[in-house]
Model the fold of this input.
Amino acid sequence: MDKPNTGNSLMVLPADIDERVSNNLRILFENQDAFSENTMSQMFSVIRSWARWCEARGKTWLPGNPVDVREYLLHLKNDLGRAVSTVNQHQAMINKIHKHAGLPRPSDDMGVSLGMKAMRRRAMHAGEKVSQAIPMHVEDVFRLADLWEDSDKLSERRDLAFIGVAYSSLLRISNVARLRVRDLVFRQDGSAIFDVGYTKTIDEPNSIAKVLPPEVACWVYDWIVMSGFSDKPESMLFSKVDRYNNAHPGSEPMKRINIEKLFARAWLALDLPHQPGQRYRTWTGHSPRVGAAQDMAMRGKTLVEIMHEGTWKRPEQVLSYIRNIEADKSVMLDLIKGVKRKK
Done:
């Protein structure tokens, strides 16, 4: 049986690879649609890096020897200065390719698992923190609306509609980018509703519905009319606008790099300063989810309510977004503030 093509010469499978492993990888590569585009992109990026490291040292990347995997992860941290979160991602993706190949996960080896635990403790003691996307708050969205909702530039109308949908629905940008014109139903009260059949954590048809408030629905409606997409229900809702101010119906979602540029333009439009020395210097595609989670927390919404709105399955990610807000709700803070000292 021919070995599956991994798409990179450095990722050629060893000649003596087990036929079962080869077949499992073939199934994985033939069914990439089972995963998000971002997940597959991350996996290929990590595996290319791991394969290059192995080739330079005469080692085999699959199956990976746990001793080599541990050395590679330490190399990322100690030699290249990568953040622990980045090293964790490399570990996870190396585990993923092994799991789908039907091989033992390298991190199940005690040397690898303890090595990563020690790395996390050292990073914690050194004050290393996980970077977080700069939040986009509801006030920011409406400041953009003040600038763009009457614009003659189709790109600004599209960008405002995209940002409005991303913020009010808390959908990941990949889900927003997959919306088609036909997906939205505009209602008499000015709102709009659409079904979301697939997210990172939900893969059942018509499992959730999202409602856009009238303000956001209006931005989307105006974009559809101005772009000429009203009679093109199969077009992607958000697509290319050329330099001559013409919108082009799309059959494929906007590319992630173009969506990230959209958020960077929004940051610049409000004349906000770059954040020097930080991983994130402007808003990114994740900014609306972070900002919306914080806005809900500041308005007294519960963790369960926030998780429901953002389709989060585990609380850890949400808590990392709202930790400073929750800290201000400390019972001990109220207790100490309430003590009147005698002078």
Notes: The mean pLDDT is 87. The chain has two domains: 9-125, 138-327. The two ends are 87 Å apart (CA to CA). Residues 332 and 338 are 10 Å apart (CA to CA).
